[in-house]
Write a sequence for this structure.
C-alpha cells in the first residue's frame, strides 16, 4: 500500500481546529464540530485519491482540487450560524461535498478507461 501524509496532516488540522475553539470565545463548539468533520472527510478523500490507483494526471489534479474545495467548505462551516436549521452555509457545504464525491467517481471511471 502506498504511504501518504494525508492522515497525519488531517489529524494535526483537527487538533489545531479544536484548540482554536478553546482559545476563541466567538468560535462555537457546533462550528468546531462541523469544521472538524469537514477536515476529516476531506482527509479521507485525499487519502483515497492517493491510494486508489488513479493515473498520475488525475491524481495530481484531484490532489490540488479536493483540498481547495475542502478549504472553501471549512470556511463556510466555520463562519456559519451555530445551527443546522435555515443554514445556507451548511447546505452549500453539503452540495460541495457531494460534488467532490461525484468528481472522484467520474475520475476513477475515466482513469480506468485510459490506457
Amino acid at each position: 500500500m502506498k504511504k501518504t501524509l494525508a492522515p497525519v496532516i488531517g489529524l494535526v488540522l483537527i487538533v489545531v481546529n479544536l484548540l482554536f475553539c478553546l482559545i476563541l470565545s466567538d468560535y462555537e463548539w457546533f462550528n468546531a464540530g462541523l469544521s472538524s468533520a469537514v477536515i476529516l472527510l476531506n482527509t479521507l478523500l485525499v487519502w483515497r485519491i492517493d491510494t486508489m490507483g488513479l493515473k498520475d494526471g488525475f491524481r495530481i489534479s484531484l490532489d490540488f482540487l479536493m483540498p481547495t474545495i475542502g478549504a472553501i467548505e471549512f470556511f463556510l462551516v466555520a463562519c456559519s450560524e451555530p445551527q443546522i436549521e435555515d443554514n445556507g452555509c451548511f447546505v452549500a457545504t453539503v452540495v460541495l461535498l457531494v460534488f467532490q464525491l461525484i468528481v472522484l467517481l467520474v475520475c476513477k471511471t475515466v482513469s480506468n478507461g485510459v490506457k
Q: What stands out?
A: The chain has a mean pLDDT of 91.
